[in-house]
Write a sequence for this structure.
C-alpha cells in the first residue's frame, strides 16, 4: 500500500510539473477506458498497453481501468460513451468502424457526432499480397488478369464494409477489372486461404504478413499507405503503381463523452501527446508497423466529417445499404 | 532425433525453478477459471497480459499456455456435478457425466475426465512436437468446401444424439440453426432476426443458451417435486470416488479416439474444441457395442469428449506456432501476446526461437502432470457439493448461472435471455425434445452457413465444388451414411420381424 | 391425452416459427452477384422446420402416443421457480446482484421448500456472503451493484 501511494504522489508531482499552467483539470479517481471488443481484441490490447505505459512512465495521477463493452458490432460501446454525457473520467478507443458502422446499421442510436473527439493516435497501413508462387509480380499483373478473365480471381477479406473490400471496390471502379471477394471472420482464416491457394490475393496488415514474407510464402505487390513503409522500401504504394484511387486509412484514436469543459479535453490531449513522445510508444509503433497519426481534437473533428462522407460514397458504391 | 535434442533443450528450460513456478501458477489459475462457468481462458489471459510484459517471454508463454490447457481440465467439474457446462466444450460432457453423477458415480466421472484429459493432453503435445510442420501444410489444404463437409458430418451426428423421436431431434437442431443465424451477417453486413434491437447484433452467446437449456432446464425440472434430501446420491468412502478398473477398461478406445480426433480437428484453424468433442462423442457412440446406453451415464461418454477437448489444445498450437494463424479466440490472444513481446510466430519460429518453442512443449508435458496431480485430490473436495441439500443447492446453481452469464458480457440483457432459455430448456424436457441437438445446431450453424456461402462464392455458384475435392467428398459421403443409419436399422428390424413372422 | 396435446401444440408453435423464418428470409437476398445472400440458408432450414413440424403434428394427431396425464401441480411448481428466477433477473439492476440473489434464495427456501424463516434467512445471507467473497473479492468480477453499495 505504501509503495502504491508513494508512486501516486510521485506521479502527481510529475504531472504537476509537466502540465501547462492553464490546464486546471486533473482526474481525481480511476478513469474508465472503454473499448468495444472483448479482452484480447485489437482495441482492448491497445487500451491495456496504453494504461500500462501511463503507469510505468508515471504520466497520469490515476489508474486507467479498461472496461470491455463488447457487443452489437461496436454499437454497444458507442451508446455507452454517448450516454455518459458530462463524465470527465471516461475515455474510449475509437476505430474506423465507429465511423462506418452507424452508416449501415439502422439499429444504431448514436454516431461519432455524439462524442467529443480527443486525439487521433495511429494510422494502420496495409499491404496487398499474393502467394509467393503466383504469376502476379505487380499489382498491374493482377489487375490485367482480372480484366481479361472477370470473376476468376478471388480475394479473401473481412466483412464487406472492411477496408479490404473498400480497396477492392475502388480498384475495380478505377480499372474496370472484376474479381470475387470472399469474407472470412478471422484474419488467420484469410491468410490460411491465401497460403493454401484457395484465393489469389488479400489485403494484409504488415505485422501479420512479416513472417510469411521472410519465409518466402507470400509476396507483396503493393502498399496501401501514403508513403512507403520502412520495412518495404522497394514496394510501390497503390498510387505509385499507377492507380489513382483515394487512400483508405485504418485509424485509431481516443474519444470521450460530450458535455465536458475545454480544459478536460486539453488535459487528455496533452496526456496522449506525452504518451506519443515515450520510447515505449515509439517502439510499439515500429513493432506493429503502424504510422504515427497524432492529431488534436479540433482537427480530428474535421477529419471525422471528411472520412464519414468519403465512406458513405464508397459504401453506396459497394452495394451496402446506407441508412444515414 | 532432432525432436529429441530439442526436447532435451526444452526440459532444461521448463525445469528451471522459475519456469516450474510460472507453469504451476498458469495451470492452477486455469483450473480455477475452468471450474467457474462463464469466465473463460480468453478473458483471463487478456487480463493477465500486461503483467507479463516484465517477465521473460518464455516464462510468460509457459504461464499463459498453462491457463489455456488448465481451463479445459477444470471445465468438466460443474458439467458433471451440476449439469452446468463450465466451458463451451464441456456441453458434451454433461450428457453422460451428469447422468453418471445421478447414479452415484460423480467422483468416478470426475476421475475419468481428469485421466482422459491427461492422456489426451499429453498426446496433443506429442503431436505438436513430432508433426507440427507437415500437419500445418495439411491444414492449409482445408478450405471452405472441406469445412462445409466437416460441419455436415458434425450435423449428421444429430442422429446419434436423438432420443426416442428423430423428428423432435431434428426440429431441436433446426431451432439451434435459427438461433445461430441471429445477428449481423458477415457477407452482406445486414442484420438478421434481431427484432430491431442492437443487443442482438452480435447474436446470442453460446454460453447463455447452454447454461439456460442444460442447467436451468434441469433445475426447474427437479423443482417440480419438493425433494427433501440431496439431489444426487452421495458416494461414501474414497473407493466410490474413483473410477473402477472396469470403467477405465471401458474407456480404452475412448482415450485413443478422443486424443486423435481432438488433435486433428484442433489443427484446423476454422473448427474448434466444441466440434471436436461432439465428433469424438459421436464416433465413440457409433463404434460402441451398446450405443443405446449413451446418455444414461457410460464412462466412455465422458472420456471421449473430455479427451478430444484437451487434445485439441496441442492441435490448435500447430497453426499458431508454425503459421502464425490463430484458430480460436484464445489462440488469437496468445498471438497478440507473442507480438507484444516482440516475437513473431510463423514459419521461422522453431528455427529462430528454439528455446521458446521447445521450452513450451516441455512445459506442457510438465503442466499436464501437474494438472493430474492437482485435480485428482480435488475430486473428493468438489464431490462435497453433492451433500448440499436440494433447497439450498438450487438457488446456488441459479446464482452460479447468473454470475457465469453476466461475466461473459457484463449485460443484464444476457441474463434476461438466460431466463428465457431456462424456460425453453424446461419445456423441451417436459415435451421430450432432446437438448443436445439444439446446442449442436447452434455451434455448427454459423460455421456451416459461412463455409457453404464461401464455397459457392469460390466456385461461382457451382455445387460440384463439394464433390470434386476428395477430402470434402469423403466427409460428405460419411455424413450421408450416418444420416441413413437409422433408416437402415429400421429396415433391418423390419426384415428380422418379417423373417420371424414367416418362419 | 396430454402427450397428444404437447406434441401438437409444440409442433404448431414450430410451424409458426418456420413460417416466420421463411417470411423473413424471403425479404433478404437469396442470391446476389457475389454469391448466396443472407436469405439463402434461413430459407432452407425454415422450409425444413415447417415440413418436420407438420410431420410431428400430423403423426401425433393420427396416432396419439399414450402418456400420463399432466401433473399440473408439478408444472406449477416449476413455473413458480422460473418466475422467481426471472424476478431475480429483473431486480438485479435496481437492487444489485447480491441483494436480489439473497431474495431469490429466501423465496426458494422459505416458500417453495417450506423451511422455517430463520433457516431461510440464514441461507439467504450465507449464499450472498459466500458469493461476495468468491466472485467479488477473490476473483474481482464486477457484478451489478445496488444503491446500498453491494
Amino acid at each position: 500500500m505504501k509503495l502504491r501511494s508513494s508512486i501516486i504522489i510521485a506521479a502527481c508531482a510529475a504531472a504537476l510539473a509537466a502540465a501547462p499552467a492553464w490546464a486546471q483539470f486533473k482526474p481525481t479517481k480511476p478513469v474508465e477506458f472503454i473499448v468495444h471488443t472483448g479482452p484480447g481484441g485489437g482495441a482492448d490490447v491497445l487500451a491495456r498497453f496504453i494504461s500500462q505505459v501511463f503507469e510505468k512512465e508515471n504520466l497520469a495521477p490515476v489508474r486507467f481501468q479498461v472496461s470491455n463493452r463488447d457487443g452489437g458490432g461496436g454499437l454497444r460501446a458507442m451508446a455507452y460513451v454517448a450516454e455518459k454525457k458530462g463524465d470527465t473520467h471516461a475515455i474510449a478507443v475509437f476505430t474506423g468502424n465507429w465511423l462506418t458502422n452507424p452508416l449501415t446499421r439502422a439499429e444504431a442510436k448514436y454516431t461519432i457526432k455524439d462524442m467529443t473527439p480527443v486525439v487521433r493516435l495511429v494510422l494502420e497501413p496495409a499491404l496487398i499480397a499474393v502467394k509467393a508462387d503466383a504469376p502476379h509480380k505487380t499489382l498491374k499483373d493482377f489487375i490485367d488478369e482480372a480484366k481479361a478473365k472477370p470473376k476468376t480471381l478471388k480475394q479473401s477479406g473481412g466483412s464487406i464494409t472492411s477496408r479490404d473490400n473498400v480497396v477492392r471496390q475502388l480498384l475495380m471502379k478505377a480499372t474496370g477489372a472484376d474479381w470475387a471477394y470472399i469474407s472470412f471472420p478471422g484474419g488467420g482464416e484469410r491468410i490460411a486461404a491465401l497460403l493454401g491457394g484457395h484465393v489469389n490475393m488479400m489485403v494484409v496488415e504488415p505485422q501479420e504478413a512479416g513472417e510469411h514474407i521472410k519465409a518466402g510464402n507470400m509476396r507483396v505487390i503493393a502498399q496501401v499507405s501514403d508513403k512507403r513503409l520502412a520495412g518495404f522500401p522497394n514496394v510501390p504504394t497503390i498510387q505509385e503503381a499507377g492507380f489513382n484511387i483515394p487512400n483508405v486509412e485504418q485509424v485509431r484514436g481516443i474519444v470521450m463523452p460530450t458535455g465536458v469543459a475545454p480544459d478536460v479535453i486539453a488535459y487528455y490531449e496533452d496526456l496522449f501527446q506525452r504518451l506519443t513522445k515515450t520510447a515505449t510508444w515509439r517502439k510499439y509503433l515500429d513493432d506493429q508497423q503502424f504510422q504515427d497519426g497524432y492529431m488534436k481534437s479540433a482537427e480530428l473533428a474535421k477529419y471525422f466529417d471528411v472520412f464519414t462522407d468519403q465512406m458513405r460514397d464508397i459504401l453506396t458504391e459497394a452495394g451496402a445499404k446506407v441508412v444515414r | 532425433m532432432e525432436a529429441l535434442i530439442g526436447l532435451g533443450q526444452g526440459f532444461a528450460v521448463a525445469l528451471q525453478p522459475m519456469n516450474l513456478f510460472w507453469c504451476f501458477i498458469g495451470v492452477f489459475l486455469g483450473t480455477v477459471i475452468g471450474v467457474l462457468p462463464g469466465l473463460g481462458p480468453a478473458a483471463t489471459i487478456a487480463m493477465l497480459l500486461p503483467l507479463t510484459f516484465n517477465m521473460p517471454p518464455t516464462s510468460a508463454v509457459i504461464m499463459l499456455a498453462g491457463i489455456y490447457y488448465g481451463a479445459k481440465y477444470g471445465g468438466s467439474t460443474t458439467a458433471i456435478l451440476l449439469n452446468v457446462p463450465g466451458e463451451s466444450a464441456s456441453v458434451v460432457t454433461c450428457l453422460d457425466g451428469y447422468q453418471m453423477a445421478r447414479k452415484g458415480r460423480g467422483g468416478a466421472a470426475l476421475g475419468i475426465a481428469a485421466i482422459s484429459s491427461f492422456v489426451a493432453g499429453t498426446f496433443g503435445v506429442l503431436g505438436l512436437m513430432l508433426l507440427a510442420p507437415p500437419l500445418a501444410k495439411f491444414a492449409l489444404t482445408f478450405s471452405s468446401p472441406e469445412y462445409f463437409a466437416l460441419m455436415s458430418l458434425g450435423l449428421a451426428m444429430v442422429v446419434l444424439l436423438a432420443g426416442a423421436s428423430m423428428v423432435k431431434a431434428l426440429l431441436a437442431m433446426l431451432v439451434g440453426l435459427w438461433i445461430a443465424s441471429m445477428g449481423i451477417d458477415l457477407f452482406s453486413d445486414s442484420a438478421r432476426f434481431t427484432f430491431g434491437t442492437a443487443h442482438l447484433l452480435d447474436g446470442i452467446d453460446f454460453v447463455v443458451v447452454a447454461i439456460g437449456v442444460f442447467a436451468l432446464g434441469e433445475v426447474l425440472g427437479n423443482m417440480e417435486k419438493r425433494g427433501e434430501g440431496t439431489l444426487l446420491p452421495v458416494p461414501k468412502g474414497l473407493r466410490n470416488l474413483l473410477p473402477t478398473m472396469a470403467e477405465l477398461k471401458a474407456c480404452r478406445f475412448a482415450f485413443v479416439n478422443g486424443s486423435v480426433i481432438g488433435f486433428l480437428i484442433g489443427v484446423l484453424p476454422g473448427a474448434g474444441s466444441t466440434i471436436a468433442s461432439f465428433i469424438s462423442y459421436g464416433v465413440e457412440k457409433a463404434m460402441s457395442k451398446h450405443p443405446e446406453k449413451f446418455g444414461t451415464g457410460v464412462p466412455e461418454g465422458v472420456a471421449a469428449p473430455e479427451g478430444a477437448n484437451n487434445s485439441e489444445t496441442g492441435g490448435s498450437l500447430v497453426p499458431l506456432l508454425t503459421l502464425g494463424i490463430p484458430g480460436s479466440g484464445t489462440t488469437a490472444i496468445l498471438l497478440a501476446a507473442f507480438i507484444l513481446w516482440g516475437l513473431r510466430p510463423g514459419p521461422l519460429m522453431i528455427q529462430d526461437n528454439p528455446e521458446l518453442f521447445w521450452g513450451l512443449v516441455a512445459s506442457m508435458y510438465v503442466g499436464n502432470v501437474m494438472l493430474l496431480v492437482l485435480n485428482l485430490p480435488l475430486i473428493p473436495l468438489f464431490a462435497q457439493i453433492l451433500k448440499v441439500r436440494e433447497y439450498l443447492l438450487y438457488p446456488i446453481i441459479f446464482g452460479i448461472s447468473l454470475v457465469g452469464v453476466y461475466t461473459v458480457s457484463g449485460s443484464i440483457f444476457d441474463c434476461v435471455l438466460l431466463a428465457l432459455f431456462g424456460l425453453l430448456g424446461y419445456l423441451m424436457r417436459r415435451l421430450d425434445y432432446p437438448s443436445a441437438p439444439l446446442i449442436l445446431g447452434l455451434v455448427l450453424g454459423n460455421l456451416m452457413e459461412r463455409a457453404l456461402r464461401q464455397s459457392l462464392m469460390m466456385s461461382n455458384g457451382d455445387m460440384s465444388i463439394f464433390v470434386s475435392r476428395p477430402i470434402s467428398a469423403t466427409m460428405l459421403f460419411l455424413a450421408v451414411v450416418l444420416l441413413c443409419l437409422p433408416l437402415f436399422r429400421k429396415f433391418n428390424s423390419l426384415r428380422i420381424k418379417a423373417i420371424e413372422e414367416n418362419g | 391425452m396430454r402427450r397428444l396435446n404437447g406434441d401438437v401444440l409444440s409442433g404448431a408453435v414450430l410451424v409458426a416459427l418456420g413460417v416466420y423464418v421463411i417470411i423473413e428470409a424471403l425479404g433478404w437476398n437469396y442470391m446476389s452477384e457475389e454469391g448466396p445472400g443472407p436469405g439463402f440458408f434461413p430459407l432452407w432450414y425454415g422450409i425444413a422446420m415447417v415440413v418436420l413440424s407438420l410431420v410431428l403434428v400430423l403423426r401425433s394427431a393420427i396416432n396419439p402416443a399414450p402418456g400420463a396425464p399432466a401433473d399440473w401441480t408439478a408444472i406449477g411448481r416449476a413455473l413458480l421457480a422460473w418466475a422467481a428466477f426471472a424476478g431475480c433477473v429483473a431486480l438485479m439492476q435496481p437492487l444489485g446482484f447480491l441483494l436480489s440473489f439473497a431474495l431469490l434464495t429466501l423465496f426458494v427456501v422459505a416458500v417453495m421448500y417450506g423451511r422455517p424463516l430463520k433457516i431461510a434467512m440464514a441461507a439467504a445471507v450465507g449464499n450472498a456472503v459466500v458469493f461476495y467473497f468468491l466472485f467479488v473479492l477473490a476473483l474481482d468480477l464486477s457484478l451489478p451493484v445496488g444503491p446500498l453499495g453491494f
About this structure: Chain B has one domain: 2-502.
